[in-house]
């Protein structure tokens, strides 16, 4: 028999032990993501655990209810990242978790959205959930050392990495003490891109919740931050959920030094994969990641009553272009005030 129950904070160790033992797990499956989301944005967590007859965890499915004022909410696994979804010991357990998720969505009168790393046809066939796979994860297989990685790059790429070093830019790897410098870059870059920015409270919560698994990297031009990023580690994978660079330093290519430094760190610390995060095939960020040797792997997002057509029109259509132009023209101070208020309800 499979029993599914909601977990509490005292289940965190058992939950993480199961996640860390599962080769399909991502960093966002860890309980740290729950702590960060609850602390920074206050969304209600519904973390489902499947157990066998001896109360051992045999599967997990993390969910958050993201409900804007007045509007109907969405129960999503997981918000603010590329993928979540169920981890399980087999099809029977996975199906029990999916049934529990659907029932939970009905109880809270919310739409259901499951973001998966791998395709699951049963969600379409049995649960009639709509599948979207227009986004990809870009993943680079890492050699044993940074020297091997460097030697495998084309001469043009090596020249682009050397350029910021020749111009005196320096990379610093740290943790929470660098969040302020990261956020200075992040908020300006997101404004230039025409997108609402996460709150600094959110960034601080993520770095704090993941502890030694999270690092902040900054490329400095003198004493000023020119680029920055955050990496999260799990098992043999390093993932980079956020990275930004200031346009005023674009001629010095600080983003090239930033990514090379993260990649070198991952290699030399023994990690075997670097997850560059999601991109749309053919777009600029996709090509940027591709030049490092990263390969695309489709992401599969499944929705039940989620109105994906509306979300898609916002994220990649004419409406998005209009919103982007308006937001980029908004005074930075106003965007920094309004952006985090909106961003907590944008699950992408």
Architecture overview:
The chain is an alpha+beta fold and 348 residues long. The protein has two domains: 3-136 and 300-306, Aminopeptidase (3-Layer(aba) Sandwich); 143-271, Gcn5-related N-acetyltransferase (GNAT) (Aminopeptidase). 41% of the residues lie in helices and 26% in strands. It is built from 13 helices and 15 strands. It has helices spanning 12-20, 31-41, 91-107, 121-125, 146-152, 155-166, 179-193, 200-210, 254-268, 284-290, 308-316, 318-329, 332-343; strands at residues 3-6, 44-51, 57-66, 74-77, 87-88, 111-116, 130-132, 136-141, 170-174, 214-221, 224-234, 237-245, 273-279, 295-298, 300-304. The strands form two sheets. Strands 1, 2, 3, 4, 5, 6, 7 and 15 form an eight-stranded mixed sheet that branches. A hairpin with a 7-residue loop joins strand 3 (57-66) and strand 4 (74-77). Helix 5 (146-152) packs across helix 9 (254-268) and helix 11 (308-316) crosses helix 12 (318-329). The longest helix is centred in the N-terminal third of the chain and has 17 residues, at 91-107. Mean pLDDT is 93; it is low at 307-316.
Give the tags.
13 helices; 348 residues; 41% helix; Aminopeptidase; 7-stranded mixed beta sheet; 2 domains; alpha+beta; 8-stranded mixed beta sheet; 15 strands
